[in-house]
Write a structure and sequence with these properties.
Aminopeptidase; 5 helices; 7 strands; GNAT family N-acetyltransferase
Length: 166
C-alpha cells in the first residue's frame, strides 16, 4: 500500500487505538444523525454498540484482512481495511476524520489501491451505504453498481474499464 501524498503512511492497529477507531466510526455516521432528536447519551451508546458489531462482523467475515490506521504527519486520521482475495482487492473500510475529508487524501489512497489492482489485473470491490457522501468518490473513479443489499450498494472497478488518471 502506497499513497502519493507526502506524509501519509499506514500503521498496525493496537489495543489502545480502539477509542480512536470508535470516535472515527461515530464521525462517519454523523450525516445519518443530522435529523434525529436522540439524546446524546443514547446516540453514543447506540454508536458504541454498532461499532462493536461492525468490528465483530469484519473479524468473522474477513479473518485475513489487512487493517491499518491512516496517519498523516504523525496524526491518526483514518482507517483502511483491505482483503486481498484471489479474484479481487476488496476495500472493506476506508474512513477519514471529517477534518481530513475533501482534501484529496482519500483520492490519493484510492488511486494507489486502483494502481495495485490494475497491476494484478483484478477488480476492486466494496460496499458503501447508498446515501453516504463517500459514494461520490467511488463513482468519480468509475466504480459501477453491481447490486443493492439493504442500505448498501455493491460497487466494482475493473482495471480494463478505464485508464487511471494519476
Amino acid at each position: 500500500m502506497f499513497a502519493r501524498r507526502k506524509g501519509i503512511y499506514f500503521r498496525i492497529i493496537h489495543q489502545p487505538d480502539n477509542l480512536f477507531l470508535m470516535n472515527l466510526y461515530a464521525s462517519t455516521r454523523e450525516w445519518e444523525f443530522a435529523l434525529t432528536v436522540w439524546p446524546e447519551d443514547e446516540k453514543k451508546d447506540f454508536l458504541k454498540r454498532q461499532f462493536e458489531a461492525q468490528k465483530l462482523h469484519y473479524e468473522r467475515l474477513f479473518p485475513n484482512a489487512v487493517c491499518r490506521i491512516i496517519v498523516l504527519d504523525n496524526v491518526d486520521i483514518g482507517r483502511l481495511y483491505l482483503n486481498k482475495e484471489d479474484e479481487c482487492l476488496r476495500i472493506i473500510e476506508m474512513s477519514l476524520l471529517p477534518t481530513y475529508q475533501r482534501r484529496g487524501i482519500g483520492t490519493d489512497i484510492l488511486r494507489s489501491l486502483l494502481n495495485e489492482a490494475s497491476g494484478g489485473k483484478v477488480p476492486v470491490r466494496l460496499k458503501v451505504e447508498k446515501d453516504s457522501p463517500a459514494r461520490h468518490l467511488y463513482l468519480r473513479h468509475h466504480f459501477v453498481s453491481t447490486g443493492l443489499y439493504g442500505h448498501h450498494l455493491s460497487l466494482e472497478w475493473q482495471p480494463d474499464r478505464c485508464s487511471l488518471e494519476i
